[in-house]
Write a structure and sequence with these properties.
This protein is an alpha/beta fold. The protein contains 16 helices and 19 strands. It folds into three domains: about 180 residues, FAD/NAD(P)-binding domain, CATH 3.50.50.60; about 140 residues, Polyamine Oxidase, Chain A, domain 2 (Alpha-Beta Complex); about 90 residues, Orthogonal Bundle (protoporphyrinogen ix oxidase, domain 3). The strands form four sheets. Strands 1, 2, 10, 11, 12, 13 and 19 form a seven-stranded mixed beta sheet that branches. It has a seven-stranded mixed beta sheet with strand order 8-7-15-16-17-14-18. Strands 5-9-6 form a three-stranded antiparallel beta sheet, with no helix packed on it. A hairpin with a 2-residue loop joins strand 12 and strand 13. It is globular and about 70 Å long. About 0% of the residues have low confidence.
Length: about 475
């Protein structure tokens, strides 16, 4: 790549958001370049193979919540490697008084589960008659008001820890769980909304997250972004750290600029280089976007800097199958904060997908830290392994020591959609309206799941394409 080159679109960041956006733009014949500061693509999607184990350092799987996922898999030729999780993965567990209890999957199992008391179950009968709130609520306030304290304690609290690694009193229900919030807004209640919403989804052929299938790939989650990057070929530049974005302010096509309004400066192989572009897509974590946009909009930079992330340590443990008393037939378990344990939960990795552990072994992934105990995520690897192993010992009846382990710490793991978050994202939208040609796309905007990121990437790619078309039609 020459020191200075002109393209239609520069995408900064080669995580799933940036790569998906670049993929769809490229298929439209748009000249796109992706700049990634790391030596390999994928962002937090990182997979390693060691000693017969396949270990996910980031996301272990994803939900097939949008047809765009299967479209992207098909367009990149990954169909043969695509895997749905073991059907037993529908079985998920909650720790209560130190014991595992299955989350109920049917009305009958709900009536008989010991997770909730009889009074808590009867409390649900009041839910359709509870009025809407008049102010922005945290997810804790919302659930406590509509469903009661026990459902918050033994269902929503661990659920929030499993998704956001957060405390439910910190997150905005409107921002972090917009579909849950919409049930109350549209239908007046959750139970009525779930029934009516299911009927409406059937007519639109949509799939809700509770019915979406869990998937991964034969060689792990990182094979997804890697395959997208492979398809883009030399248009993805790795180990390229962007140092600045300059806006020339030129809105008219001229012989000199050919409409290249933005100058993207970066370092690659210890050399400075630049790309001139009509459009820039920032697909980076909020703090990186803030540093790059400071010269263009210091107010937006401050807003993005205020987006907080929860720290998480991921500890993969391998055991001899004979040393684990529990059958591990399921997805794993989550831990309510009231249990006062030092882990957020555990995935039974080798039960979900084939090829995750050698014959005669099992693999489990334990998550530590988050908004509950952020200091634990910074522990040394040896202490993380000891902590994880000691917490698992009684829960899944482990008799021996782990025969393999691997730790990964993510100091800035998951963006926190806190109270007031909608106002922050409105500032992003306002900036895009005032700065034609710049788009922001990452998991701090529009949802944190893989499916959310892919949908956001598709929307941004379409907006960028429309902007370029309008520009060319002048």
């Amino acid at each position: 790549m020459p020191a200075s080159e002109q393209v239609d679109v520069v995408v900064i960041g080669a995580g799933i958001s940036g790569l998906a956006a670049a993929h769809w733009l490229s298929r439209k014949g748009i000249d796109v370049r992706v700049l990634e500061k790391e030596s390999e693509p994928g962002g937090t999607m990182k997979t390693v193979r060691e000693e017969g184990y396949l270990v996910e350092l980031g996301p272990n799987s994803a939900l097939e919540t949008t047809p765009l996922i299967s479209q992207l898999v098909s367009e990149t030729g990954l169909q043969q490697d695509f895997l749905y999780a073991n059907p037993a993965g529908r079985n998920r567990y909650i720790v209560k008084h130190g014991k595992l209890h299955a989350l109920p999957l049917s009305p009958l199992s709900f009536l008989t589960t010991p997770l909730f008391s009889a009074s808590a179950k009867l409390r649900l009968l009041r839910e359709p008659f509870i009025e809407r709130a008049t102010h922005e609520e945290s997810i804790a306030e919302f659930v406590r008001r509509r469903l009661g304290e026990e459902f918050l304690t033994y269902a929503i609290d661990p659920f929030v820890a499993g998704i956001y690694a957060a405390r439910p009193d910190m997150l905005s229900v409107r921002s972090a769980f917009p579909k849950l919030f919409a049930l109350e807004e549209r239908y007046g209640g959750l139970l009525r909304g779930m029934v009516m919403g299911r009927r409406e989804r059937k007519t639109r052929f949509e799939r809700s997250k509770d019915r979406a299938k869990t998937f991964s790939f034969r060689n792990g989650m990182q094979s997804f972004p890697k395959r997208i990057a492979d398809g883009l070929g030399r248009n993805v530049l790795l180990s390229a750290r962007v140092t600045g974005i300059r806006d020339s302010g030129r809105n008219e096509v001229s012989e000199e600029s050919d409409g290249a309004r933005f100058l993207v400066e970066y370092l690659h192989a210890d050399r400075s280089a630049e790309l001139r572009a009509r459009t820039v897509i920032l697909a980076t974590p909020a703090r990186i976007a803030a540093s790059l946009l400071k010269a263009l909009s210091s107010p937006l930079a401050r807003t993005l800097e205020s987006v907080t992330y929860s720290p998480v340590a991921s500890v993969f443990l391998g055991y001899n199958r004979e040393d684990v008393g529990h059958a591990l037939t399921g997805f794993g378990f989550l831990v309510p904060s009231v249990e006062q344990r030092r882990i957020l939960g555990c995935l039974w990795s080798s039960s979900l997908f084939p090829g995750r552990a050698p014959e005669g072994r099992v693999g489990m992934t334990v998550f530590i830290g988050g908004g509950r105990q952020p200091e634990l995520a910074a522990l040394h690897n040896d202490k993380l392994v000891d902590l994880a192993a000691s917490e698992l010992k009684n829960i899944v009846q482990i008799r021996g020591k782990p025969v393999y382990w691997k730790c990964t710490s993510w100091p800035q793991a998951i963006p926190q959609y806190e109270l007031g978050y909608d106002e922050k994202m409105q500032a992003v939208t306002d900036f895009e309206g005032e700065s034609p040609g710049i788009f922001l796309c990452s998991n701090y905007r529009g949802g944190i799941s893989v499916g959310d990121c892919i949908m956001s990437a598709a929307a941004v790619a379409q907006r960028a394409e429309e902007y370029l078309r309008r520009f060319q039609d002048r």
